[in-house]
Model the fold of this input.
Amino acid sequence: MQVAPKMGYQMSFQAMAWAIKQKSPTKAKFLLIILANYADENGHCWPAISTLCKDTGMPRSTVKLYLTRLEDMALIKKVQRSRAAVKTSNLYTLIIPK
Done:
């Protein structure tokens, strides 16, 4: 029996291929690849910092440092989100040229 692919897998694959090609320090690139793995068809993802720590094996402070560096390098855009005045996971957008 063949299972239909989940929506977003193609974008995730394309986003990961883009992330791999980026010139950046190793930890930043690894984090970018992890974000790309979560990306939807619009390049958006919203993994929690704890999820990124688990996936990368990096401590929280290192993940936050490299998220800032990826933003400074204009590879991602971060938007803080909240629901009913309670902070939720950030929204990350991969800045992939069209």
In short: The radius of gyration is 14 Å.
